[in-house]
Design a protein that fits this description.
51% of the residues are buried. With 538 residues, the chain is of the alpha+beta class. The strands form three sheets. The protein has an 18-stranded mixed sheet, with helices on both faces. The protein has a two-stranded parallel sheet with strand order 7-16. A two-stranded antiparallel sheet has the order 11-12. Helix 5 packs parallel to helix 6, helix 13 packs parallel to helix 15 and helix 14 crosses helix 19. It is globular and about 70 Å long. The longest helix has 23 residues. The two termini are 34 Å apart. It is 40% helix and 20% strand.
Length: 538
């Protein structure tokens, strides 16, 4: 038992997890590369029409009325005007998710890559269950990779939440690209024999309620994404939208829900889940009551009229398009990557990028060079080794620092001790040890805000499914630009440059160094170690 507990603690460290996962992938990479046929198609089921009543329906109607009052030539189709709020604080990200769930009258559709068995996962699950108790139809897609527990305690809570979702008559749960084996040994064998298929993951992240409101962005369901992890928390960005953007996101959800890449619980699992439902529901309530971490949040559903009434007049108005990669019989399409490569070259004045995992490759650097040559100002914000939670990405990113600088783009790397951690990352009562960057957003010409799940690396481009919301709104774009520029300030980031000997240096508000910043020596060891492995895995 002490050994098992020790392993659990080690696995709670992001650096250790990244090392173990990468070693596993490298070991398996030499096996079968055949993409097998997708799973049996589930019974087709489509998103319900937008609710005709309820708080969210009223907000969507208010957005349309406001747009018409301001003279926008809007319409009521899925191409019409939506209202948007930027979610760049961890506490807001969780609070507004809860507000949507608590306000649901008929439907909730949600898909996530990771769904942890921690405080956030428990609270999110509890609210979904309460909505289902009211008669709301809840559909959930989780990537099967996200069901791997990172510690024994999370395994117990994850299994409890899964049983509750499976057993509730108003909740449908599907796993994306499942190995078909629920134990570690079975998954290992599945990866060894079906590696090419199982290396494709669903990285999408969305929550859509009543087909009137949606949240899209970079955050998964887990403590570190909403500021509640005492060890480390992510700087991340989502967008909350009301109106046609919700229907656009629903269409994305339906693509995955009705694909041949998802599975449901078998009859045996269903029966077992129903047998433990009452016991597990009571255990979940007790677990939430004992949580000191969730002091800022109501543990039961509540009314949100006051918050929504204050929010509605402040929403940014704009048109949107939600683009996704699609699971096909021969793999995952590259539609998000294609959109990026086709549209970023159209930038005329300035491009601001904040992205956690950056490996641009020759094509990306050539694009930057063309943009700067044409007169555009380009600012890029990404992780330093010190703020990186996946050291392997830094191992393959660092070779591109000089080419990025040579293109004329400005390059900034997040500090693990950023001043912004206290105000926008951590959620009280938590004060984490360090911060990592997880945002995946950009601003084009202070007009288009692009927010989603896509990193700028080979895995996001060619292996994962990703989704992005492209929003034509000058006011939202300006707010996102201000957030990115705040992140790049000397108190929050290192500015990367060259000295007079053409050596890379890092500057912030207290020092200038010529060795890449790191939290400890172990990060530097990992950084060297992962250089041995192919960047296509990351």
């Amino acid at each position: 038992k002490p050994i098992i507990n020790g392993i659990g603690k080690l696995m709670d460290q992001p650096a250790t997890r990244s090392l173990i996962i990468a070693l596993g992938l490298i070991t398996l990479a030499g096996y079968s590369t055949t993409v097998r046929e997708p799973f049996e198609m589930p019974e087709a089921e489509w998103t319900q029409p937008a609710a005709t009543d309820g708080l969210l329906a009223q907000i969507a109607a208010d957005v349309t009325a406001r747009a018409e009052t301001l003279g926008d030539q809007t319409d009521h189709s899925d191409a019409g005007i939506s209202g948007f709020k930027l979610l760049d604080r961890g506490e807001d990200a969780l609070r507004w998710r809860l507000s949507l769930i608590d306000s649901a009258t008929q439907s909730i559709d949600t898909q996530y890559y990771l769904y942890h068995g921690d405080n956030t996962g428990l609270l999110f699950t509890s609210r979904l269950l309460e909505a289902a108790d009211r008669g709301v139809k809840v559909r959930i897609i989780i990537d099967d990779m996200g069901t791997l527990a990172i510690s024994p305690s999370q395994a117990k809570l994850r299994d409890s939440m899964g049983a509750l979702m499976i057993a509730h008559p108003n909740i449908s749960l599907r796993l994306f690209n499942s190995s078909g084996n629920r134990n570690l040994l079975g998954r290992g064998w599945s990866f060894a024999t079906q590696f090419e298929q199982l290396n494709h993951r669903m990285h999408n992240k969305s929550l859509t309620v009543d087909n009137h409101a949606t949240i899209v962005g970079g955050r998964n369901i887990g403590d570190e994404y909403v500021g509640l992890n005492p060890h480390f928390n992510f700087r991340d960005i989502d967008v909350l939208g009301f109106g046609p953007v919700a229907r656009q996101t629903s269409s994305v959800f339906d693509v995955f829900w009705n694909s041949g890449w998802v599975i449901t619980a078998d009859s045996s699992t269903q029966t077992k889940a129903e047998g433990v439902y009452e016991t597990q529901r009571l255990a979940l309530k007790q677990e939430l009551k004992q949580s000191e971490t969730l002091a800022q949040f109501s543990l039961v559903a509540r009314r949100w009229e006051t918050e929504f009434n204050a929010l509605t007049p402040l929403l940014h108005l704009g048109r949107s398009e939600v683009v996704t990669d699609r699971p096909d019989s021969d793999g995952i399409s590259n539609e998000v990557f294609d959109w990026v490569m086709e549209n970023l070259p159209e930038v005329q004045q300035d491009l601001l990028v904040t992205n956690a995992y950056l490996i641009p490759g020759p094509e990306g650097v050539a694009m930057l060079d063309d943009l700067v040559t044409a007169g555009a100002e380009v600012t890029i914000h990404t992780n330093s080794l010190a703020s990186q939670d996946v050291a392997a990405v830094n191992s393959h990113y660092k070779a591109w620092r000089k080419p990025i600088l040579a293109s004329g783009a400005s390059l900034f790397e997040a500090r693990h001790d950023a001043a912004i951690k206290k105000s926008r990352v951590d959620t009280k009562p938590i004060s984490s040890r360090y911060m990592g960057l997880h945002s995946k957003s950009l601003v084009m010409d202070r007009r288009f805000a692009v927010i989603g799940s896509a990193n700028l690396d080979p895995r996001s481009a060619f292996l994962n499914s990703e989704m992005i919301a492209i929003i034509d709104s000058e006011s939202l774009a300006e707010e996102l630009a201000e957030a990115i520029l705040l992140d790049t300030s000397p108190a929050n980031s290192w500015e990367v440059g060259l000295n007079d000997r053409e050596q890379i240096i890092w500057r912030n508000d207290v020092e200038t160094v010529s060795r890449q910043p790191a939290r400890n020596g172990w990060q530097r060891v990992q950084d060297l170690f992962f250089m041995l492995f192919p960047k296509r895995l990351y």
